[in-house]
Amino acid sequence: MKSLAPFAFALFASCAVNDAPATSSASSAVSVLGTDVLTSENWFARDTHTIDDVWPAGQGITSTQILVRKGPCRNDPNNDCTSPNAVQTFMAVVVWNHSTVGHIYWVTKGTDGSDFHNLVDNALGTRCNTNPDHGGGWDGSPYVGTPPAPHPNVNGWAFDVDTTFNQNAKDAAAQLDAWTGPQSVFANYVVPPPKQ
Known about the structure:
- With 196 residues, the protein is α/β, with parallel strands linked by helices.
- It is built from three helices and seven strands.
- The N terminus is likely disordered.
């Protein structure tokens, strides 16, 4: 199986600094198909989230891929995760139909991360089980990233990305879906009968 490592490297090598005030996923602007987001959003378990935060219904979305990588630490003035108050995070890039980066979530490990994982599982299960022609999944690890995780490309509670970052995310999502989605090489695989 081909590795997505080259895509992950290119994906997170194109972050930029954001001077904008902090945003919350509860008040974030959701992208529609064809309109990429360029600024990360914070994901907090204390906010009310629904599966529409990951895979909105009624928008023509038939495929959702979530790419997860280690994120920059919060409360880390030196941007090196060595501060005594540094908090570990991960980034989750949500790609719809291989054509739109709908969200880039910045999630703190722990309660927020558990909340995010549970909601993503519910979103993928609900959308794919109610529409057999829909596909989705996620890949990556919150413990590894492109060294260094995008530092010093973080300012405050958000970070911006550029169009190269988004294109790399879309390419990686398409490759992941090609290997695992409903049209994948495994979709028509027939399990051979047991040997007699």
